[in-house]
């Protein structure tokens, strides 16, 4: 049994009377794509926010890369190798695509209390940033303002930023949201290529993509993880069919 | 340098800097002493405006208490002077250090909040020191205190108007130089990135609070320097140096000149002083006696600037690249 | 003991006046997402307009009552001419524009009423004292301020708890779509809310006038105190504003009353009595700092 890279142990988060995360224990192993699915309001984003450190859980623990990170602030978790993309596209709109990725590189290149050298001439940041942009297919768009990139390109840029720090785990919150068919296919191909090299926790609505990509799937309903297993096991799981997937899964199966 | 002359922005900047560099010679040649004193105040206020721009323009943090650093720098000079410490070598570092210390304290509290809280808290803490100044009976309370100018034995005599002006100008140049480096260095990119999207910056792994606190502290230190100069300019300190109206004026100057641009605060300061000096006589031309009420025109001008001219003077020279 | 009780009452009265200001700020902030520095100008305008109307009508009550619709109108005009254009803007634009309005109103007052301050006399029928406790007289006018302030506070509590506008405040909504979803005419609602805030500010200004004086810039310092109050109370919470206003009122008045005696134990009495007001002001800010360390979003603010 491989030691998991990320694991939660009976995580609980309440908002008033609502239990948004109900004793959830999940884990992600090195190199695997683990998909988290569930209907709207199932508590996926709440769970992700606790993993990234934007929300503090009421009970339970989060371990990452062999450490208890439950109380660690966001930026410290990122330093340990936990990178994320946002559900709603979140790039630095006033900066060029290259600047965006270069900042992501900079975040992992020691402290930034440096006041004199021109950051745009710093090849230690620019060169890896350029490679990162090329890897996601944005090499041509390096000098373009992020705000003027198309929606799909911004999502690609986000992935490039998340990858820039060479993270151990990528937390992708609906990377295909709002993408056209063609762009989605390209993103799926790209994630496929990452498989085995990096662990990915994928939150996604597009069932086609999930079943194509995932090694394992966890189903979240009303804050509870009702099932976890390989795509085949999830397809076969009666409770999942009943509680959530219903007809949709029948089509795929 | 020659390349800069080819754009209107570059040309205007170079001309303004050249005029400022030789201002004492000009005012002497045309026998306009009064203009030199305005010029000195412009240069000092420009230092403060550049320092505010570091956090307001580049950092997007609406600090409504920046004039407090005028007060801290000024009172450091005045209080030390009142106790017989007249050497600028002691007064000035103390003034800058006190301003930085206060900025670090206020920043540690206010930067944990955002939006309106930040505006109001910075305003409130400036008001706190204002009332401390009012309560300092030993240092003139409300009325303020006449002080003697800092001494830099053998190096420069601050009582000489031209020497003092050139010292201020050199310090402005140094401040601008630092700002130009800072804005394009790793540190400045973090601050500017956080203005654009602080959640994203945190998610990239930057401890944003720490960088903002450092920027706030640096900005305060330069503000303190401006306060030291202001106290020496008039040989006088008073709580009015740090009244909230002065903080408002500084925000007006930065926005008027162009936020987040290197020379915008300088343009803004010049425009602000020119307006202040020229609106009353212009209004008096329209109708004798109206000049006294120039703010009735100036106030609505600010409203219009806020509504329609956010790019400031800098944007008149066309869009910036990059 | 009696002296302490009187000072506490004075503190309650100051707190209620500041609550009137803070409530207007809270309303405009909650519903329109507007930072209005010029709120203090409405406080000042209320007092000046009341001074004129009291002069014309020769009656405090009639003048004061007429001043309220007059400032309501002023508020509606200011809203229509300037504020309406600021709702969708960021806070910096709002700060800049309303700062410009302060300069404008201060100068306008100088043009219309001249630079010298005005005074409004305590109305005849309230110029006596009442015995609030056997053998303890207290000025009737101050009792009246407390009564009016309490009535307005109760009115606001009702507004927040029982009306649809109140629902918006409770939801912490500065959300146009949500307001539209409730089927309310937004433009009209915003005008009315701003006008209402102006009336509260004017009421505070004209009630305070007989106790202090009517002068240029009178609204500016008290406005900053009102800001401190809503920061302590938690932005967007009427209840928080009320509690914080009471606390600040007590600190200010009780501080002024008792600090000199305390200070005299270690400084000259002249220095003590001149430093005391400044120190009690400083105390208010120290309390604010303390609250912020403890709870960055204020006592009743929404925690994130």
- Main interface pair? B-C, 44 and 49 residues
Mind describing the biggest β-sheet of chain C?
2 strands, antiparallel
Residues in β-strands, percent of chain B: under 5%
**Which structural class fits the helix and strand makeup of chain C?**
mainly alpha
The domain tally of chain C reads: 1
What oligomeric state is this? Answer: heterotrimer
How helix-rich are the residues of chain C, as a percent range? over 70%
How does the SSE layout of this entry go?
The complex is a heterotrimer of chains A (253), B (322) and C (304).
Chain A: E1 6-15, E2 18-24, E3 27-28, E4 33-37, H1 44-52, E5 59-64, E6 67-68, H2 74-80, E7 82-85, H3 97-107, H4 123-135, H5 151-164, E8 169-173, H6 181-194, E9 199-203, H7 207-213, E10 216-221, E11 224-229, H8 231-236, H9 238-245, H10 247-252
Parallel strand pairs in A: 4-9, 4-10, 7-8, 8-9
Antiparallel strand pairs in A: 1-2, 1-3, 1-5, 5-6, 10-11
Chain B: H1 8-21, H2 23-29, H3 33-56, H4 68-82, H5 88-110, H6 115-135, E1 145-146, H7 161-184, H8 186-204, H9 208-234, E2 236-237, H10 244-257, H11 264-286, H12 295-308
Antiparallel strand pairs in B: 1-2
Chain C: H1 2-32, H2 39-57, H3 60-81, H4 91-113, E1 129-133, E2 136-139, H5 140-162, H6 164-170, H7 176-181, H8 186-208, H9 218-233, H10 238-264, H11 269-294
Antiparallel strand pairs in C: 1-2
Helix pairs in contact in C: 1-5, 1-8, 1-9, 1-10, 2-3, 2-4, 2-8, 2-9, 3-8, 5-6, 9-10, 9-11, 10-11
Task: Provide a quick synopsis of the model.
The complex is a heterotrimer of chains A (253), B (322) and C (304). Chain A is α/β, with parallel strands linked by helices and 253 residues long.
List keywords for this structure.
heterotrimer, B: 322 residues, mainly alpha, ABC transporter involved in vitamin B12 uptake, BtuC, two-stranded antiparallel sheet, 2 strands, 70% helix, C: 304 residues, 11 helices, 73% helix
What does this structure look like?
The complex is a heterotrimer of chains A (253), B (322) and C (304). Chain A has 10 helices and 11 strands. Chain A is of the alpha/beta class and 253 residues long. Chain A has a 6-stranded mixed β-sheet with strand order 7-8-9-4-10-11, with helices on both faces. In chain A, strands 1, 2, 3, 5 and 6 form a 5-stranded antiparallel β-sheet that branches. Chain B is built from 12 helices and 2 strands, in the order ααααααβαααβααα. Chain B has a two-stranded antiparallel sheet with strand order 1-2. In chain B, α3 (33-56) crosses α10 (244-257), α4 (68-82) crosses α9 and α5 crosses α6 (115-135). Chain B starts with 7 loop residues before the first helix and ends in a 14-residue tail after the last helix. Chain C is built from 11 helices and 2 strands. Classes of the chains: A alpha/beta (253), B mainly alpha (322), C mainly alpha (304). Chains in contact: A-B, B-C. The interface between B and C is large, with 44 and 49 residues.
């Amino acid at each position: 049994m491989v030691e998991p890279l990320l694991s939660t142990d009976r995580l609980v988060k309440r908002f008033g009377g609502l239990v948004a995360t109900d004793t959830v224990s999940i884990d992600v192993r090195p190199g695997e794509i683990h998909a988290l699915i569930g209907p709207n309001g199932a508590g996926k984003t709440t769970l992700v926010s606790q993993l990234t450190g934007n929300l503090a859980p009421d009970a339970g623990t989060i371990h990452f890369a062999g450490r208890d990170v439950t109380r660690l602030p966001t930026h410290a978790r990122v330093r340990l190798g936990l990178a994320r993309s946002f559900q709603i596209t979140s790039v630095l709109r006033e900066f060029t695509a290259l600047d965006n990725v270069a900042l992501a590189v900079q975040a992992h290149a020691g402290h930034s209390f440096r006041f004199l050298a021109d950051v745009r001439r710093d090849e230690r940041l620019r060169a890896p940033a350029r490679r990162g942009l090329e890897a996601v297919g944005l090499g041509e768009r390096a000098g373009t303002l992020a705000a003027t990139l198309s929606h799909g390109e911004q999502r690609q840029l986000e992935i490039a930023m998340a990858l820039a720090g060479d993270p151990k785990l990528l937390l992708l919150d609906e990377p295909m949201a709002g993408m056209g068919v063609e762009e989605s296919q390209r993103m799926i191909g790209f994630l496929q290529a990452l498989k085995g090299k990096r662990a990915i926790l994928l939150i996604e609505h597009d069932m086609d993509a999930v079943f194509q990509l995932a090694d394992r799937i966890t189903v979240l309903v009303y804050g509870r993880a009702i099932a976890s297993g390989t795509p085949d096991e999830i397809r076969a799981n009666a409770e999942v069919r009943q509680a959530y997937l219903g007809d949709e899964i029948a089509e795929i199966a | 340098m020659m390349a800069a002359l080819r754009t209107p922005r570059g040309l205007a900047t170079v001309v303004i800097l050249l005029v400022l560099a030789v201002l004492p010679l000009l005012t002497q040649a045309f026998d306009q002493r009064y203009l030199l004193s305005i010029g000195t105040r412009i240069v000092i206020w420009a230092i403060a405006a550049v320092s505010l721009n570091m956090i307001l323009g580049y950092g997007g943090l609406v600090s409504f208490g920046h004039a407090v650093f005028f007060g801290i720098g000024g009172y450091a000079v005045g209080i030390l002077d009142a106790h017989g410490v007249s050497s600028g070598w002691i007064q000035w570092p103390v003034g800058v250090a006190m301003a930085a210390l206060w900025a670090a304290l206020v920043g540690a509290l206010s930067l944990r909040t955002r939006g309106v809280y930040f505006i109001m808290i910075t305003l409130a803490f400036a008001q706190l020191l204002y009332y401390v100044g009012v309560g300092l009976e030993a240092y003139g309370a409300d009325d303020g205190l006449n002080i003697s100018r800092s001494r830099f034995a053998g190096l420069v005599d601050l009582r000489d108007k031209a020497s003092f002006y050139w010292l201020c100008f050199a310090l402005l140049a140094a401040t601008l130089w630092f700002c130009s480096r800072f804005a394009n260095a790793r540190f400045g990119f973090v601050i500017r990135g956080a203005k654009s999207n602080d959640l994203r910056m945190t998610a990239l792994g930057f401890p944003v609070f720490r960088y903002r606190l450092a920027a706030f502290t640096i900005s305060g230190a330069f503000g303190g320097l401006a306060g030291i100069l202001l106290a020496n300019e008039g040989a006088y300190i008073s709580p009015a140096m740090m009244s909230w109206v002065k903080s408002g004026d500084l925000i007006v100057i930065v926005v008027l000149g162009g936020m987040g641009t290197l020379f915008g605060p300088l343009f803004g300061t010049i425009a602000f002083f020119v307006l202040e000096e020229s609106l009353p006589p212009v209004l008096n031309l329209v109708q004798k006696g109206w000049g006294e009420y120039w703010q009735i025109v100036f106030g609505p001008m600010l409203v219009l600037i806020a509504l329609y001219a956010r790019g400031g003077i800098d944007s008149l020279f066309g869009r910036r690249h990059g | 003991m009696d002296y302490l009780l009187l000072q506490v009452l004075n503190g309650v009265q100051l707190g209620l006046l500041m609550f009137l200001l803070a409530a207007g700020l809270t309303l405009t902030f909650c519903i329109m997402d507007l930072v209005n520095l010029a709120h203090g100008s409405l406080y000042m305008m209320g007092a000046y307009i009341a001074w004129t109307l009291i002069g014309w009508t020769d009656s405090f009550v009639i003048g004061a009552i007429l001043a309220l619709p007059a400032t309501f109108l002023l508020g509606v005009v200011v809203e229509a001419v300037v504020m309406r254009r600021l709702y969708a803007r960021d806070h910096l634009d709002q700060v800049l524009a309303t700062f410009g309005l302060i300069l404008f109103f201060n100068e306008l007052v100088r043009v219309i009423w001249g630079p010298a301050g005005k005074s409004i006399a305590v109305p005849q029928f309230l110029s006596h004292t009442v015995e609030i406790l056997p053998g303890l007289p207290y000025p009737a006018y101050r009792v009246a301020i407390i009564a009016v302030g309490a009535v307005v506070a109760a009115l606001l509590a009702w507004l927040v708890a029982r009306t649809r506008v109140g629902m918006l405040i409770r939801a912490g909504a500065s959300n146009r779509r949500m307001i539209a979803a409730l089927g309310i005419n937004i433009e009209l609602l915003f005008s009315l809310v701003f006008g209402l805030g102006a009336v509260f500010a004017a009421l505070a200004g004209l009630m305070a006038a007989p106790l202090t004086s009517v002068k240029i810039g009178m609204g500016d310092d008290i406005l900053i105190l009102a800001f401190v109050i809503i920061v302590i109370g938690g932005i967007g919470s009427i209840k928080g504003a009320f509690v914080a206003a009471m606390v600040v009122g007590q600190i200010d008045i009780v501080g002024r009353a008792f600090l000199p005696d305390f200070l005299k134990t270690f400084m000259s009495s002249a220095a003590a009595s001149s430093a005391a007001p400044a120190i009690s002001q400083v105390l208010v800010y120290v309390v604010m700092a303390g609250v912020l360390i403890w709870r960055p979003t204020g006592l009743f603010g929404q925690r994130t």
